[in-house]
Design brief:
With 242 residues, the chain is an alpha+beta fold. It has helices at residues 8-56, 61-93, 105-119, 142-158, 189-192, 212-223, and strands at residues 101-104, 125-130, 137-140, 163-172, 175-182, 227-232, 236-241. It is globular and about 95 Å long. The mean pLDDT is 93. The structure holds adenosine-5'-diphosphate (ADP).
């Protein structure tokens, strides 16, 4: 008796299972790395807060003022860090609902520009907008769009000492292309491909969590768009998304 079995299906299933197992392991590794990183990032400001609070007991008036400043700035950092981590976890767990609604992007963009202008305190930077349409009806999650633009412009302000920042958008390939272009510090070539990953930072002496861009990337992935940056170290960057 000759038996012929078609094992194609079985082979396919085995392959799929192996793939799933590999992905689960990979995601487990990523999670552990994330947790290790996170504990380090949280401990740094927390240690500063605890340490300087203790020192306060023995400090003179002058030192006290310095210590309070250190404590306050680390409080802020810790709060931002926790908020970012919660935001990221919620996005990752899929518990964030995107709210698509029709609105006029031209008007929305104008409002974002006004609020960004108020945030800019450096007189050596000129912030301009390129809002090319009189009216631009779109269906998007407006809060998420605002969140990413705010993140981009806040970064541009933070990493630019002088020159210009341009925030703009344009209709392209049936979608919307948003961008923020600055004449800031730029990103070195070896970092630029990793800049949207968690905790990747170029300058350690500027305050930040290294999570803002990771959150942007996650939102865009959920929205089904694209995200990227073109940057020249020492010259400036253009962060964009669609
Ligand atoms: P954070 O600003 O809190 O460190 P982000 O995730 O927003 O975290 O940014 C990650 C890193 O990318 C920053 O630390 C900075 O090195 C770099 N970066 C972001 N935006 C710019 C920019 N406009 N110009 C130069 N570098 C930038």
């Amino acid at each position: 008796v000759i038996r012929v079995d078609d094992v194609t299906e079985r082979e396919k299933m085995i392959k799929e299972l192996q793939e799933a197992k590999h992905q689960a392991e990979q995601s487990d590794k990523l999670k552990s790395a994330f947790l290790a990183n996170m504990s380090h990032e949280i401990r740094t400001p927390l240690n500063a807060i605890v340490g300087f609070s203790e020192l306060m007991a023995y400090a003179g008036e002058e030192e006290k003022a310095d210590y309070i400043q250190i404590i306050n700035s680390n409080n802020e950092l810790l709060l931002k860090l926790i908020n970012d981590i919660l935001d990221l976890s919620k996005l990752e767990a899929g518990s964030v609902e995107l709210k698509y609604e029709p609105f006029d992007l031209s008007e929305h963009f104008e409002n974002m520009f006004t609020s960004m202008k108020q945030r800019l305190k450096n007189p050596d930077i000129v912030l301009t907008e390129i809002n090319p349409y009189h009216c631009c009806q779109v269906t998007l999650d407006r809060n998420r769009v605002a969140q990413i633009i705010t993140n981009y412009v806040t970064n541009a302000i933070k990493y630019t000492s002088k020159g210009s920042i341009k925030m703009g958008y344009a209709c392209k390939d049936g979608g919307v292309y948003f961008y923020v272009k600055d004449t800031g510090s730029g990103i070195p070539e070896d970092k630029v491909n990793h800049i949207f990953e968690r905790f990747v930072r170029v300058e350690q002496n500027k305050k930040g969590t290294g999570l803002g861009l990771a959150i942007c990337e996650m939102i865009i992935r959920k929205l089904g768009g694209k995200i990227g940056v073109e940057s020249e170290y020492g010259k400036g960057s253009t962060f964009w998304f669609t």
